Amino acid sequence: MEISLDKNVRNEFPERKIILLDGRVVDCYPRLGVNFEGLTQPEDNLQQPLARISPQSDKEREADKERFIKNAFFFLAHKERILMDSRMFLCPVPITSGMSISGTSGFENPTLGIYLQWWETCAGAMFTDKKGRRGLLFKLSGSGLSGHNICDVVHEDGTTKNVELHPFKDYRDSFIHINNTYKSAKQKYQAYSLRQVLDILDHEEEDDRDYAHTINEQMQVREISALNELLHNLITRKEELEHRNKELEKALFDERVLHFYDRYKDLEKRIFSEVEQLLQQKRDLKMALRRGDYNIQTYERLVNAITKRINEAEQELTEFKEREILKAFPEHSMSFWRIESYAQQLIDRNNAEDQTENP
User: Fold this and answer.
1) Is the bond into 167 cis (omega within 30 degrees of 0)?
2) SS3 of 99, please?
3) Residue 12: pLDDT band by 50, 70, 90 thresholds?
4) Interior angle at CA 169, CA 234 and CA 147, nearest 5
């Protein structure tokens, strides 16, 4: 039976089942007093303990806390065994994590299986430091606003220390997601105590089993996975930066096109105005010639001077296009008609955007 676990779906498992993050389906054993419509309660046996009737005392919780920390790597070595038994998976772990504002919301009642899945899937929750010491995160405390945090790590020798995590949000969100995924299961199904889990694992333990190799293998798998995640993130970031760079390059190119075209249109407007005035002068001279104000020699001299200035003005416009195109777009082979066409597209687009924003 294969059921995929969508990360956006929580507490919607089939009755008497939980689904692990890798898609495996594990049978569960309802607590006494929990009824399932259309289903009958299973027969009790010695490996299906009754649900705890009364809450643990502070002393019992403290003992279980130390038991979990001391045996964290032992539990890690038996991860596959624990994950295949829902009563081990749902074994409560009395570690209290929390946030400075929201308190323990989302961190309530973590279990052994939740920690094992978190260590396996959250980059940095299981690690080897620069000194070669292996560590497991087991407590998260910090601020979701500032990101400041003081979290706890346990090493293989059982010693603990405080660490600060970056980015803290990634650790917090991944733990809360996994913990909330099994919120309903923790309420409905039977669970062993940490002492019972240890007793069962000790009883099943094989003398020749190399637990150090098992832990090392899991560490390496997690570190390889973390490196792959880092590589994926770096590739994604590279692609995002390349895309952003292309957008910036295009924006700068568009700005150069519009700047060039604005200068050209200003010059064109000035020259066209001057040429129009010169043509009007030629028309006025022709009328004066007809009236006899000028002789033909004077008329031709004045007209030739005006024609020369018109040619110079038109040449100035042509030279501007040739000279300024090379200066503005040295890396491109651009013709004026292409620049004019593209500039007009940009102007039309900007006008349409302005009309949309200010109808």
Assistant:
1) yes
2) strand
3) confident
4) 110
DSSP state of 129: -
The pLDDT score that the predictor gives to residue 230 is 82
CA-based max dimension of the chain: 132
Question: What is the spatial distance between Cα 77 and Cα 176, in angstroms, rounded to a whole number?
Answer: 24
Average pLDDT score over residue span 325-330? 90
Tens digits of residue pLDDT in 48-107: 444 444 578 889 999 999 999 999 999 999 999 999 999 999 999 999 999 988 899 999
C-alpha to C-alpha distances, 307 to 49, 137, 247, 311, nearest whole angstrom: 110, 88, 48, 6
Question: Which long-range contacts link 310-315 to residues 24+ away (Cβ below 8 Å)?
Answer: 310/275, 310/278, 310/279, 313/271, 313/274, 313/275, 313/278, 314/271, 314/275
The predicted pLDDT at position 125 comes to 94
Task: Answer yes or no: pTM beyond 0.70.
Answer: no
Q: What span, in angstroms and rounded, lies between the C-alpha atoms of 309 and 318?
A: 14
Can you tell me the distance from the alpha carbon of 139 to that of 150, in angstroms, rounded to the nearest whole number? 9
Alpha carbon 311 to its chain centroid, in Å, reads 62
CA–centroid distance for 356 within its chain:
31
Tokens standing for 122? 């959250």
How far, in Å, CA of 171 to CA of 157, rounded? 24
Burial of 338 (0-12, 13-18, 19+ CB in 10 A): middle
- 114-164 pLDDT, tens digit each: 999 999 999 899 998 888 899 999 999 999 889 999 999 999 999 999 999
pLDDT at 41 (0 to 100): 45
Cα dist from 345 to 253, 335, 341, 342, 348, whole Å: 14, 16, 6, 5, 5
* Beta-carbon count within 10 A of 70 CB: 12
Residues forming beta bridges with residue 161, ordered by sequence position: 153
Whole-angstrom distance, CA of residue 92 vs CA of residue 70: 15
d(CA 137, CA 207): 28
